[in-house]
Amino acid sequence: MLRELGLSAHAEATYQAMLVAPGCGIGELCGILRLTEQQVRASLDELVEFSLLRESRDQPGALRAVSPQIGIETLLKQQEEDIARRQRELTVSRAQVAELVGEYARLRPDVTIGGTRRLVGLDVIQSELEILAAELRTECLSVMPGGAQSLSSLRASRPLDRDALARGVEIRTLYQDSVRNDQATYAYAQWLTAQGGQVRTAPALPPRMLIFDRKVAMVPLDPDNSRSGALCTSEPGLVVSLVAVFQQVWHTAAALGSQGAVDARTGLSATDRELLRLLARGLTDEAAGRHLGVSARTVRRQVAALMSDLDATSRFEAGLKAAQRGWL
Length: 328
Description:
Layout: H1 9-20, H2 26-33, H3 37-49, E1 53-55, E2 63-65, H4 68-107, E3 111-113, E4 116-119, H5 122-135, E5 139-144, H6 151-166, E6 170-176, H7 183-194, E7 198-202, E8 209-212, E9 216-220, E10 230-233, H8 236-252, E11 254-255, H9 270-280, H10 285-292, H11 296-310, H12 315-324
Parallel strand pairs: 5-6, 6-7
Antiparallel strand pairs: 1-2, 3-4, 4-10, 5-8, 7-11, 8-9, 9-10
């Protein structure tokens, strides 16, 4: 009981012994409690500090135990005073933090236009993400194109995702099908699913985006270079448009781990169809690879397989036959 009020086990035992046997000296307490003299003296000092021992009027120089009714009430009052003091300190600290945050907001180099801010630098972006993740209440939607994600990005995302999921936030993430080719990113996607997040994949994705509670969205300034900075917007029209883009891709994407539906008529996967579309647009292997999140070497291998299926000797012939068969 007294330990819950801050008293040590030795001090509580000493107090109980002095209540049962008033007038005990240090030697007698050592024998009763099987404590060393140093431990008993430390306990007596603690009891005096907690106002549970007072000087005896019958035996000047000796100590007497205060009755539990008075002593515990004193302890409770001390705790109440400590709590009130800590609350006052916390109020002051909150005011100081608010002032510091306001000062930081004035000093940071972000450019704000209406409800949209331009964030420059990975550290600034990460700081903003941490704030937005902490304020999340219901849902986080994200599009992560490019297949393999950087290890630094995965490390930074894990605690934010874990904390949000623990608070009951729904997390839905879109990766490219090529994510299965990168062990670290695929393992992260599996971890996210195991924690309660939802992950789907698609052959191609729109540019990277993060949408928080359908109120704030973050997109890169340059989709091909996330290090160049990001735009963070709370403009309703922009956010609603981005949510619509996400939903459109989400409804056609496949669950993580599945290869996606194969067209029974053509035998083509979604990735095959997307690759044919890219080649029909005249994209090079390198450009198609960037679009699909794979290497140019992988694109060449997939193109060779498609040409074999179409019995074509050139890409032009493959495109012509794919169109004739209604594959495009």
